[in-house]
Design a protein that fits this description.
The protein is α/β, with parallel strands linked by helices. It folds into two domains: 127 residues, ATPase, nucleotide binding domain (Nucleotidyltransferase, domain 5), CATH 3.30.420; 169 residues, Nucleotidyltransferase, domain 5 (2-Layer Sandwich). The protein contains eleven helices and 13 strands. It has a five-stranded mixed beta sheet, sandwiched between helices. A five-stranded mixed beta sheet has the order 11-10-9-12-13, sandwiched between helices. It has a three-stranded antiparallel beta sheet with strand order 5-6-7. Strand 1 and strand 2 form a beta hairpin. Helix 5 packs antiparallel against helix 7.
Length: 319
């Protein structure tokens, strides 16, 4: 059995590609590139192919020792045919990733949702190891989740189960990248927090986050953390609002699915402990008393690597 796989985490901000030892979960080498979705899907595919080639050049492991290339992408996925059906945060629609990558490498290619692969990584070697009944929620450019039952990802009738980011939290609310209004993602993602802060700054509100912002650059999770540490009123209020909405969404999932464990991850959760702790406290308070008394929360343990490790196991689908 071939013990190496390539795992790719294709996100709205970055493409992380890694060579993974499937026996140990060790990430042997990585290549990171900016997604730059504004340059179009063809550019994203080109960057992915370049990343894989760079990985092979760096590690000198022959391609015939690689069992698969696994890719996790944000959005709705056709797993069987390897197509990104719709990914607003990538600006990709009906993109046949499998076809493009397979035409360049003679290695089996598998595609999954980005939080699905993160859940698989956390189940194999991270916070959910030993647990076969949990929900994984990741907060970054968007808000995504995956549902695990009896050790398998629940994908639903159309393969789109777990889209917690598109639960409607306000019927006449903010527009979402998916085309709907009032989605959780429009209130609780890092992107939503950025928009709230930027809107307030344009109206003349003061914030210490200006000490970290460079012209033309985006607000990062690190900037948000530093501003909260300095007790900035504007940033703290925007993060509190996002936590309020996210905790409500998680409480709804706890009441509906009744998992043993909720694993929280993503750039905002990793960087801003204030946001993580507030969300956990509020989610438990908003849940029904019985599941609230039993539910366990954990931070994702693999950090940036949860996605690439999980992607390496996409050929297995079940751990």
């Amino acid at each position: 059995m071939k013990k190496y796989s390539v795992g790719i985490d294709l996100g709205g901000t970055k493409i992380l590609t890694a060579l993974v030892n499937k026996e140990t979960g060790e990430v042997l080498a990585t290549v990171k590139k900016k997604t730059k979705k504004d340059k179009g899907p063809k550019n994203i595919v080109r960057k992915m192919i370049e990343s894989i080639e760079e990985l092979f050049d760096e590690t000198n492991i022959p391609q015939d020792e690689i069992s698969s290339i696994g890719i996790g992408a944000a959005g709705q996925i056709d797993r069987e045919n390897g197509i990104i059906i719709g990914a607003p945060n990538l600006d990709c629609y009906d993109l046949n990733i499998k076809e493009h990558i397979s035409s360049r490498f003679s290695i089996p290619v598998y595609l999954g949702n980005d939080v699905e692969i993160a859940a698989m990584g956390e189940m194999a070697f991270g916070a959910a190891k030993g647990c076969d009944d949990f929900v994984c929620v990741f907060v970054g450019t968007g808000v995504g989740s995956a549902i695990v039952k009896n050790g398998s990802i629940i994908t639903g009738a159309t393969g789109t189960a777990g889209e917690i980011g598109h639960i409607i939290v306000d019927l006449n609310g903010r527009p979402c990248a998916c085309g709907a209004h009032g989605c959780l993602e429009a209130y609780a993602s890092r992107s939503a927090i950025e928009k709230r802060i930027e809107g307030a700054l344009k109206k003349g509100r003061h914030s210490v986050i200006l000490d970290y912002l460079e012209s033309g650059k985006s607000i990062t999770s690190g900037m948000i953390r530093k501003s909260i540490e300095r007790e900035d009123e504007l940033v703290t209020a925007c993060v509190d609002e996002a936590s309020e909405y996210l905790s409500g969404g998680i409480a709804s999932i706890i009441n509906f699915i009744n998992p043993k464990l909720v694993v929280l991850g993503g750039g905002l959760i990793d960087a801003v402990d204030y946001f993580y702790k507030n969300t956990v406290r509020k989610a438990r308070a908003k849940s029904l008393p019985v599941p609230a008394s039993k539910i366990e929360f954990k931070k994702a343990a693999l950090g940036d690597f949860s996605g690439v490790i999980g992607a390496a196991f996409l050929e297995c689908r079940k751990l």
